Amino acid sequence: MLSYFNACLFNGGFMSNDFKKLLELQKIDLRIIEQEKSKEEYPKTVESLEKLISDAKASIENSESRLDEVRIEKKAVEEQKTNAKLSLEKSQERLNSVKTNREYDAVHTEIETHKNISSSADKKIQRLSDDIETVEGELNEAKSEYDKIVEENQPQIDELKAKIATIDSAIAEVVSERDGLIPDINKRYVRTYDHIRIGRKRGMVIGIVEGTHGNCAICYQKLQPQVVNQVRKGNDLVFCQSCGSILIWKAFVDDEAGE
Hints:
Layout: H1 2-10, H2 14-95, H3 101-181, H4 187-198, E1 206-209, H5 225-233, E2 238-239, E3 246-249, H6 254-257
Parallel strand pairs: 1-3
Antiparallel strand pairs: 2-3
Helix pairs in contact: 2-3
């Protein structure tokens, strides 16, 4: 009876099958972890990409707002210049009809004031015209940059949003696959596996061992010779003396480990 049992062990028998199923279970759990991670990370990525677009759009709006302000200011100065010109013409007409030196000096002062206002307005108009040209250039650059950012990032945003919309159903499918596998594995093995898995964020519970002087595939610590021998025999679950991971001899799951 013992020889038959050992033959089963080393020829794809009872325990070897459980080891393979455990490894398959770990692969399923890693897929679930990856999906859960995506569920957390995808929205963050979308938010980050959408912020790039919104910032680029804000840059356009800022340039447009600045352009409107400069144009309004220029228009006000142009009106000021027009009013100064009209006032200058009126003062010059009055100059021809003054009768006293005092009136002459007063009108002449008005004329100089209107000329100064007009001259100052000309300088402001030129400066504002230059500002408008500069801001228009900035606006065109902002629009070009916005189009570039949207072109580069919107497809990824759309793709991630589509994945986010289906990720719960994807997780449910993998969980269903897991539920279907559990009955095929030794219950004690599953309980032990799950107990270890719960405390591990990365989800890695099983380490494959090969070679006489093996190392744990999880924590990379060198295994004691007696531990390697126990793993090689495959009579029961064996654990890494350092990290507590389940250790399985490569030959028992060779078709799985080679994937």
